[in-house]
Structures are given as C-alpha cells and as structure tokens.
C-alpha cells in the first residue's frame, strides 16, 4: 500500500534552514514526500515516485543526470550540495525544466544525519511511537515526547550539542534559546552561562529527577522542563521540553522520565554504532593514504566531494624527544585532532606506525601555504606546551582531488624523512622549504641501501677513524662543506687550520683519494654524510 507521505512544505518547515534551503519547486510545495533514497555517484541515476533523492557526491553539472532522472520518475525532490551561486543558477534551471523540487544542503551537513532525520519526519507520529518502543530514532522520540507533553522538545548531549528535536508548526511558539540552539546545533553561550549560574547543569549531572526552569521573558526564555539522560552514574545527555503557546500536559514530567530511559538505551546503542562507524572510516582513510583503497568508498561514506582540493599533513616525534607509547600516542593524536578540527571541519586523522596523518579534504581553492603552515605550527606549539612533546610536521602537496591523496602523503613522508636525517632546522616544512634537503636525503638513503654504489676508499676512511679514534672523515667533510675555505672549516671543528690541512692530506694518503677531482669531491660530500653502521 502506498503511504500518503509528508507534504514537501511540512518537510521543509521541520528540517529548516539549519540543514536545507529550497532552490526550486516547480510543482509547488504540496508534493508528497513518501521515501528517501541515496544516489551514489557511481550508480546510474535512478529515482522513484515521491522520493527525496539525496545526490551524494554530485555537485555542479554532475547533478544534472540525477535531476533529469528524478523528473522522469516523478520524484518529490532532489537534495544536492552546492559550491557557489553559479551552480545554483544552473541547477535551478534544470530542476524547473525537469519539474522536480531542488533542495540545497549546507556543506557541513552529514548526509547520514539528513537521511535519518528526513526518514523520521516522513514516518509520522504513528510510526514514531512504534519506533520509540523499539528504541528507534532520536527524532522519533523527540516528536513523541512533544505529543505526550504538549511541548517543544530537543535532545542534547552533555556538551549542549543538539542531537534531535521535535518539529513545531508555529514558529512564534519557539523561544530564543530553542531557536538559536537549533540553528547553531549548540546552545548559545550567553544562555548556557545563565543555566550554569542557576545550577541547572549541576542538577542534571547528579539527579534522575525532572527539573523545572521558570520563564525569563527578559532573556527570551520560556518555561521548560529538563531531565538528564543517564546510564548508571554516567550522564549521556539531556531532554528539554519548552512550553509553547499552550501549557504543558499534566503528566509531562512522567512522560519525561520514561523518555529519558528510552533515550539512554538509544544513546548507548548509538555509541556502539559510532564506534563501528569510526573503525570503518579509519579503515577507508588508511587505505586511501596507503594507496590500497580508491577514494570513492571514503567519499561516499562521508559525503565528500571527490574533486575538491585536498592536502595531507604528517606529524612525527622531533629528534629531541621520542614519544612514550604508553602515554603520548593517544594524547598527541587527540590534541592534533582537536586543533585541526577547529581549523577545518572535515579533517580526518589516521595514526599509521610512528606518524599521525591528517587529511584535509574539500579545501577552498587557492588556500595559501602560509595558512596550512600556521595550522601545523599551532599543533606543535600546543603539544610542546601542554604535553611536553616535541613534534615536527610536514605539509604535503595540495592535490586536485581525493584520488591524488597518496601523492600528497608520499611528499609529506619524504619531507619528514629528510627532517629525521638532520640538516633541517625547521619544526614545520613544505617541499619548497627543503627541496634540496629532501633530494639529498633520498640520495643518501639510496647509498645506504645499496652498498655497491659507495666508494670503498671512503668506506675505508670511516673504518680507519673508528679503529684509531681519529677524525679524518669528519675533517674532510667539513673542508668540503666550506668549499675549501680552511679557516672556516677549522673554526667549525674548533681546531687549528694547520691541523685541518694535515688531516685532509692524511686522508688522501691513506685512501688514495684525489680531492682535486670534482667527481670524487661530490661523492665524498654525499657518502661521508651517511650514518655510521
């Protein structure tokens, strides 16, 4: 049997500007929305009558096939993410021609969040009651509590971030605290300060009882009830019920007690699911960085745009101090995560062996290198100040899309490798800063790996020093680095110039080297930089 569906008008009122914005509605706003479908960019564009089609990963002209297919199938609407006003104009024209509504989704919105919310709204109150009984969606629970209490409901976590909310047909019923919380997905700080001052959060942390908060018209706050969502002694969140134009129902407090218990089970289950989601994200991200997994899986999973610029930052312990695996690894990763997320909402972290990689997808075109450098420097300063851990960071190349992310990671690794071999007096480096050092480092790595490329006379010189406690090789290298300036090299070694001249002649006599020959000087400058084996 075909479900009647939810009018597009009501769906838009419930979702509101925090998530979507109407761009075109050629068939009007009374079109029924009966279901939600997700269109993967790798799948052929298809739709069904009455569907809200979530066009994941399709931006700009790439969304045109989805719009045309939705129009042919008499779908209710297509939701896309836009990069700029030029895209909106082209897609609005296409949507009008296809006869299907076009919704633009805010860039920071997670597709799975929009999918869950839209399905709960389309299901309606009757289905929502069943969903609550089965510990279903939090939005269903919020709507059911709104019906039972005659109020306006929101569910928040312990950081006052909005997890779900009931829909309200009359915007005049909603007070400032509710409105600003929904728009920002977090309670505004001035109001939160007042709640802390009144002891509201302290009560919710330590009690299972419902708390009543009086109206404060001067602050734009109406009367509301609140109860902590708890699992044993741990608080998981809060349910808030704001009084609207009608008084709250007589049994509102009792309904809240039951709702808090249902929500606790829901949040515990959600945490388990989130843990599984985090593991999947880490697997896909690690695979992309290592080049063993293509970009499409990660892009689809997280709703990322494959074609937007991306960069990889890599962090590792500085030579001055290693990471204590028992203490620092998790703390450093957490610190990097927090600081990076504050600068780039979509940042993703992947600890791989001794390094921590940060993928910055969907960067704005033309983002200056200086900006990335300052972000990395902030992390290093914070790690030094708060954890006492010295870090260094490498900035990989900014690539044109997710498919080229392994190239950016490889460049960041090359830079860190060069920094690890010494000779780079920087905490944060990009390739333009250390181009020569990186190339010399890689040549040295090749010499170290392939003994057949080394000059045996230079090898014999280092062996002689080790056996006799002399410093001939060090003196030759200092002389070469100073371009033959004896006094400069002698000062660097803190020896007399005549001593340096003697050591260079002695090295030539022992080995048969002729340092007057450019090729022999070049090879000596490289090979004598190898670490002793």
UniProtKB/TrEMBL annotation:
Limits of the PucR C-terminal helix-turn-helix domain: 472-530
Domain (CdaR GGDEF-like): residue spans on this chain? 297-417
Domain of life from the UniProt record:
Bacteria
InterPro entries in the record, alphabetically? CdaR-like_regulators, CdaR_GGDEF, PucR_C-HTH_dom, PucR_C-HTH_sf
Q: Which Pfam families match?
A: GGDEF_2, HTH_30
Q: What protein family is recorded? A: Belongs to the CdaR family.
Query: What is the name of the protein in this document?
Result: Helix-turn-helix domain-containing protein
Origin organism is Kitasatospora camelliae
| High-level lineage | Bacteria, Bacillati, Actinomycetota, Actinomycetes, Kitasatosporales
């Amino acid at each position: 049997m075909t479900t009647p569906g939810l009018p597009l008008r009501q769906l838009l009122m419930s979702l509101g500007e925090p998530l979507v914005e109407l761009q075109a509605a050629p068939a009007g706003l009374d079109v029924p929305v009966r279901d939600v479908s997700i269109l993967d960019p790798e799948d052929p564009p298809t739709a069904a009558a009455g569907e809200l089609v979530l066009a994941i990963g399709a931006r700009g002209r790439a969304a045109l096939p989805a719009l045309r297919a939705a129009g042919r199938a008499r779908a209710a609407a297509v939701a896309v993410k836009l990069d700029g006003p030029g895209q909106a104009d082209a897609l609005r024209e296409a949507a009008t021609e296809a006869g299907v509504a076009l919704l633009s989704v805010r860039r920071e919105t997670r597709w799975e969040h929009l999918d869950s919310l839209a399905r709960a709204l389309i299901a309606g109150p009757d289905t929502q009651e069943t969903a609550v009984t089965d510990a279903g969606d939090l939005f269903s629970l919020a709507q059911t509590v709104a019906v039972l209490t005659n109020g306006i409901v929101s569910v928040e976590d312990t950081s006052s971030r909005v997890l779900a909310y009931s829909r309200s047909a009359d915007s005049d019923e909603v007070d400032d605290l509710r409105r600003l919380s929904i728009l920002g997905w977090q309670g505004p700080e001035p109001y939160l300060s007042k709640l802390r001052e009144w002891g509201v959060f302290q009560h919710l942390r330590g009690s299972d009882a419902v708390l009543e908060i009086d109206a404060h018209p001067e602050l734009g706050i109406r009367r509301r009830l609140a109860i902590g969502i708890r699992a044993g002694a741990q608080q998981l969140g809060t349910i808030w019920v704001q009084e609207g134009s009608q008084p709250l129902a007589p049994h509102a407090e009792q309904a809240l007690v039951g709702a808090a218990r249902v929500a606790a089970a829901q949040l515990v289950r959600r945490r388990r699911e989130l843990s599984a989601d985090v593991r999947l994200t880490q697997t896909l991200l690690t695979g992309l960085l290592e080049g063993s997994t293509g970009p499409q899986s990660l892009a689809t999973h997280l709703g990322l745009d494959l074609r937007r610029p991306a960069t990889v930052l890599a962090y590792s312990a500085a030579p001055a101090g290693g990471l204590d695996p028992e203490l620092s690894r998790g703390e450093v990763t957490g610190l990097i995560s927090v600081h990076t997320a504050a600068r780039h909402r979509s940042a993703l972290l992947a600890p791989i062996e001794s390094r921590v990689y940060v993928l910055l997808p969907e960067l704005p075109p033309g983002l200056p290198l200086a900006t990335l450098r300052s972000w990395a420097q902030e992390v290093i300063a914070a790690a030094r100040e708060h954890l006492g851990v010295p870090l260094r960071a490498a900035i990989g190349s900014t690539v044109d899309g997710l498919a080229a992310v392994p190239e950016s990671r490889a460049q960041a690794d090359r830079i860190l490798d060069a920094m690890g071999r010494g000779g780079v007096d920087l905490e944060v480096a990009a390739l333009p800063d250390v181009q020569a050092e990186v190339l010399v480092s890689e040549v040295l790595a090749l010499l170290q790996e392939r003994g057949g490329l080394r000059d045996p006379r230079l090898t014999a010189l280092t062996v002689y020093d080790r056996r006799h406690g002399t410093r001939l090789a060090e003196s030759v290298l200092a002389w070469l680095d100073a371009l033959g300036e004896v006094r400069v090299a002698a000062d660097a070694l803190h020896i007399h110039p005549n001593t340096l001249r003697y050591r260079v002649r002695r090295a030539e006599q022992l080995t048969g080297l002729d340092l007057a020959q450019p090729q022999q000087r070049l090879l000596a400058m490289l090979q004598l930089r190898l670490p002793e084996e």
